[in-house]
From TrEMBL:
It comes from Arthrobacter gengyunqii. Belongs to the intradiol ring-cleavage dioxygenase family. Keywords: Dioxygenase, Oxidoreductase. One of its GO terms (molecular function) is protocatechuate 3,4-dioxygenase activity. This is Protocatechuate 3,4-dioxygenase subunit alpha. Its EC number is 1.13.11.3.
Length: 189
């Protein structure tokens, strides 16, 4: 090839999603068995830029336990119902809804805002999306959080879950549009 010849870019290729094969496993979205003391329901809907539900996304969460300890327990893929490993996976249903059974994470450092790390895999995404789910209660800790403080005030709310009357959390995800969830960039990830 001579220097005058230039390679032409080709369209991006997307694969899948093939989440129905091999990725889901028994009780994958139950970080603990439902009904155990301290468990909560984390749920929401994944939507596209037009506000339409996305029926084929896959979500993963990683989080600290209620005391703020990052679990080091093995066995995330083989649930026993009692061992909290801090990791779970949930496929959305046909209406874009997901549900996890988990606990409220504790702060991993004194005065820090507790959060759950969230990964989103889906049709048309050439790579996974990273974001966080913050608990809404501790306004002082939320105000001090470096990530939240780096965002315009109107964008911060896309990372803060809503507490429901039963103690559960609702966190809706918008992949694009006016209420797009803030996504994080991790070089090399």
């Amino acid at each position: 090839m001579t220097p005058e010849q230039k390679l032409q870019p080709t369209p991006a290729q997307t694969i899948g999603p093939f989440y129905g094969y091999a990725l889901p496993f028994d009780r994958d979205s139950q970080l603990l068995a439902p009904g155990l003391p301290g468990t909560i329901r984390l749920h929401g809907t994944v939507r596209d830029g037009d506000g339409e539900p996305i029926p084929d996304a896959l979500l993963e969460i990683w989080q600290a336990d209620a005391a703020g300890n990052v679990p080091q327990e093995p066995g995330s893929l083989v649930r026993d119902g009692y061992t909290f490993t801090g990791w779970g996976r949930a496929a959305v249903d046909g209406a874009g809804n997901y549900t996890f059974t988990t606990v409220n994470p504790g702060a991993t450092e004194e005065g820090a805002a507790p959060f759950i790390s969230l990964l989103i895999f889906g049709r048309g995404l050439t790579n996974k999306l990273h974001t966080r789910i913050y608990l809404p209660e501790n306004e002082d800790a939320l105000a001090r959080d470096r990530l939240l403080a780096s965002l315009p005030p109107e964008r911060r709310s896309t990372l803060i879950a809503e507490r429901e009357d039963d103690g559960g959390l609702r966190f809706d995800i918008s992949l694009q549009g006016a209420n797009e969830t803030v996504f994080l960039s991790f070089p090399g990830a």
